[in-house]
UniProtKB/TrEMBL annotation:
Name of the featured protein: Disease resistance protein At4g27190-like leucine-rich repeats domain-containing protein
Presence of the UniProt keyword Acetylation in the record: no
Pfam families (UniProt xref): LRR_RPS2
Keywords from the UniProt entry: Plant defense
InterPro entries: At4g27190-like_LRR, LRR_dom_sf, Plant_NBS-LRR
Listed PANTHER family: DISEASE RESISTANCE PROTEIN RPS2-LIKE, NB-ARC DOMAIN-CONTAINING PROTEIN-RELATED
Length: 268
């Protein structure tokens, strides 16, 4: 099965009652499991990229989304979705989606205010968790302009697991910060391309002014400040090859994770 809703060839019949938007108003849980040929949920003509959810479907009440083994899907979400879709998500589980290069498009992040659980497992092509708008921009290891710093806030996420993502290089390709005010558990395991787990974020525009327009060091997975992980209790870093735990002054995670109780990192 390549599509859940197949409308190919029916565009001309739209005026006769075929909907332009499929609205699933009461659906609270959606499991898409072991569908290796699935390309999209709803067919869209002239689409160049296999996007699972496009602007022709809306899920205003969806709470749990589980996606496992959709081998043909290159993007989960289209860059332009209907306004009232996916705002209620509390759980997202993505596993064995081998064509994905990132999990969220940039504009999707603002819809994740209620997300509590995020697990990304064994997706062999994922390079970043959040992609740039239009999927254009610099690689995580290239020099980056410091014109502005993007800040992502995940106000409700309590556990985040990134497991067996062999091409993962960063959370987002450009310089950014993230805030996880309620995060309790963070696991990063078998992500061998991540060079550094965390680095102290310093606003170079403030400290060095406009004379220092770029940085050339590889980005860590997380740029951290005192506000990044205020509630983190358990941190697991396992099987990540030569990944450095910390870049910058000091190497004690508790400096930025004041409630940390368990820190498992056998490589250190």
């Amino acid at each position: 099965m390549e599509e859940i809703i197949f409308t190919d060839g029916l565009a001309a019949a739209a005026e006769e009652g075929i909907p332009q938007l499929y609205l699933f108003t009461k659906l609270r849980r959606l499991d898409l499991i072991r569908l290796p040929k699935l390309r999209t949920f709803c067919h869209q003509e002239n689409s160049e990229i296999n996007t699972l959810f496009n602007q022709k479907v809306a899920f205003p009440s969806l709470v749990d989304l589980i996606i496992v083994g959709t081998g043909k899907c290159r993007k989960i979400w289209h860059d332009k979705l209907t306004v009232d879709s996916f705002h209620e998500l509390t759980l997202l589980f993505v596993e064995h989606c081998d064509k994905l290069s990132n999990v969220f498009p940039f504009d999707m992040v603002e819809r994740l205010e209620k997300l509590e659980t995020l697990h990304i497992l064994e997706c062999e092509s994922v390079e970043e968790i959040i992609g740039l708008a239009g999927d254009h921009g610099l690689n995580s290891n290239e020099s980056i302009e410091l014109k502005s710093t993007t800040k992502f806030v995940f106000p409700k996420i309590r556990d985040l697991v990134l497991y067996k993502l062999p091409k993962l290089k960063g959370f987002y390709p450009k310089v950014h910060t993230t805030d996880w005010p309620l995060l309790k558990l963070l696991e990063v395991s078998e992500c061998s391309k991540v060079e550094t787990f965390a680095g102290e974020y310093i606003n170079l525009r403030e400290t060095q002014g406009e004379s220092q327009p770029i940085i050339s060091v590889p980005q860590p997975l997380f740029w951290v400040t005192k506000e990044t992980f205020p509630s983190l209790e358990e941190l697991v870093l396992d099987g990540n090859g030569n990944m450095k735990v910390w870049h910058g002054h000091g190497a004690d995670p508790k400096q930025y994770c004041p409630k940390l109780r368990e820190f498992y990192c056998p490589e250190t």
